[in-house]
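protein under study:
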Amino acid sequence: MSLPVRTIAPPAANSDIARVIVCDDSLTIRGAISRMLEADPGIRVVARVGNGQAAVDEVKRTPADVLVLDIEMPVMDGMTALPLLLRADPGLRVIMASTLTTRGADIAMQALRLGAADYVPKPSSIGAVNDAAFRRELVEKVKGLARLRRRAVQPARAAPAGGALKLRPPAALPAKLLAIGSSTGGPQALFTLVQALGRAPNVPVVLTQHMPATFTPILAQHIARLGICPCAEAVDGEALVAGKLYVAPGDRHLLVESTRGGVRARITTDPPENFCRPSVDPMLRSAAAACDGRVLVAILTGMGQDGLAGTRRVIDAGGTAIAQDEATSVVWGMPGAVAQAGLCTAVLPVPRIAGKLLELLRAGPP
């Protein structure tokens, strides 16, 4: 028997309002998340439900942009409900609320590969819900995913409204390393990018994704399962070989260091940068130095400006950068900062980034 459903009247039609359903079996957590979201004037919680079956029923009668979905619930759990929700409303953006455990991380990554849009670490208490970092992360994801839903029927654009971006020619020399930075919305963008590659790049690939320590090894495993290129968390001191993707471990910076025969990984506990550890900037700075500037940078969706200073260092040293466009980014903070600074050779929708990367990696001296 389904738990009672509390339905809140939908707001008046307004394309700027993100309409959200919150699904969690804890009445306390459900209410706290709903109040936190509605504190933002750009968000309206249109329903609160206590299990997956209730969420499926609600989606069929209440229009919504985003659904925050708990994983472990009675009657119907989140993973069982996910495909039913996407079948009921294919345009719905689902955010999985996952515990900060290895099992929770694995389920969250499975959900992303099955069509969930993103995940958030599930709060364990009212105090955790009220944490400023959690609030900022969830609000940004909800608003960004709601914008993506509204744009789904419109063609992606490479430049933001208000003017074309200034692009620069690619570097003359081919890259020795591909470096990727991502944050909010990053896992789904990474799955899309890696699948679109079709084959392993001919250089080592380093990746910094803002993510907790329990999640980064699971992210690496799920990227490896895509079958395009081997992927694992980077290990301190290991040689970086062509065709393999190395993920920065959670709560550690991944640096690149030159060796007599190539480059290797360095894992550090240096202080956070841009409030992040791992951070994209130290990875890019070290890569620019280790590879004599011959670095190809891809900055994907993410909140803030991490990667801007590091990309500038790469460009000044002779490298090349591309960024994800605004229309396909959950949050156009990181890629937008790099694009608007005039550091990019291309600004593209995420499905087109892989082809451009391969094109640039194949290019030799003019």
Summary: Residues 132-151 form the longest helix (20 residues). Confidence is low (pLDDT under 50) at residues 1-13, 155-162.
